[in-house]
TrEMBL record:
It comes from the Bacteria. PANTHER family: FAD:PROTEIN FMN TRANSFERASE, THIAMINE BIOSYNTHESIS LIPOPROTEIN APBE. Magnesium. Can also use manganese. One of its GO terms (molecular function) is transferase activity. This is FAD:protein FMN transferase. It comes from Gemmatimonas aurantiaca. Mg(2+) binds at residues 126, 233, 237. Pfam families: ApbE. InterPro entries: ApbE (IPR024932), ApbE-like_sf (IPR003374). Keywords: FAD, Flavoprotein, Magnesium, Metal-binding, Transferase. It is an enzyme of class 2 (transferase). It catalyses: L-threonyl-[protein] + FAD = FMN-L-threonyl-[protein] + AMP + H(+).
Length: 288
């Protein structure tokens, strides 16, 4: 009998869940548990909150070529590529004191080393959860019906228990728990950056504009749909920081589909990937 199996863990500051649909529940559960081990590996590699993580140890060794694992090398390469594509709107060195920039990171793919040319703090949080989702999807690549969610960074393929495409809800940034819309997703990743998450004591949010050194203004939500969760994660963050006009142009150049909602409740859509179709305008309005 076809059944839905779910396995979830608390990790990376959120809940990571795997849902699988198939005929052999016990085997599917074991596969989910085995795949989930990758999440712990990502956290041990790139957590900036753990002084023993590989990332934290790297930041104590500036000015020298440091051998790094393939995982950390891939994460840093993606972070720097996203920074370059976004002209630094996305920057893994944001928050460094004294100031550093992504150009101060040198990656040698041949030797497998990374050189930090200045003292810096490195934060890969904007892509790490998406990277973990990609690893889980790869570990379960032979299974046809999979949904993975790491704190709102999602990948889905196949169908749910009802035989329908997985449905992904896009949160309404002006309504606590409300949804803007739902997307039918198959073989795609969906990631949203929003100012409603992780509020700071000064009333700002965690999405920092590297050029200003403080929370970006203009948008309240940016959702990106494409192939590759870590890529979608980084692009959503970069576009959010850019704002509506620059962000939509940037995402169109990246050939993805996206929905950006500004502080006035207006929707800005991008249909450059032809994977999903967002309505031109929905019900999102700031509360009175």
């Amino acid at each position: 009998m076809t059944e839905l199996v779910e396995h979830a863990v608390s990790a990376m500051g959120t809940v990571v869940s795997i849902q699988l649909v198939g005929d052999d529940g016990p085997t599917l559960l074991e596969r989910a548990k085995e795949a989930m081990l990758w999440v712990g590996e990502v956290e041990r590699t790139c957590s900036r909150f753990d002084a023993t993580s590989e990332l934290s140890r790297l930041t104590t060794q500036h000015g020298q070529a440091v051998p790094v694992s393939a995982m950390l090398g891939q994460l840093l390469a993606l972070a720097c590529a996203t920074a370059a594509a976004s002209d630094g709107a996305f920057d893994p060195t944001v928050g460094s004191v004294p100031a550093a920039r992504w150009q101060d990171i040198a990656i040698d793919d041949v030797r497998g080393t990374v050189t930090l040319h200045r003292p810096m703090r490195l934060d890969l949080g904007a892509i790490a959860k998406g990277f973990a989702v990609d690893l889980l999807a790869r570990a379960l690549a032979d299974l046809p019906h999979v949904a993975i969610n790491a704190g709102g960074d999602l990948y889905c393929r196949g169908h749910n228990l009802r035989g329908e495409p997985w449905s992904v809800g896009i949160r309404d940034p002006f309504s606590d728990g409300g949804l803007l819309l739902q997307l039918a997703v198959d073989g795609l990743s969906v990631c949203t950056s929003g100012s409603y998450e992780r509020r700071l004591p000064d009333g700002g949010h965690h999405l920092i504009d590297p050029a200003l050194g403080k929370s970006s203004r203009g948008l309240v939500s940016c959702t990106v749909v494409c192939e590759g969760t870590a890529v979608a994660d980084g692009l959503a963050t970069a576009a959010f920081i850019m704002g509506a006009e620059r962000g939509t142009s940037f995402l169109a150049d990246q050939q993805v589909d996206a929905l950006l909602v500004d502080e006035g409740g207006r929707w800005h859509t991008v249909h450059a990937g032809a994977r999903v179709r967002f309505p031109d305008q929905g019900p999102a309005l700031p509360s009175a």
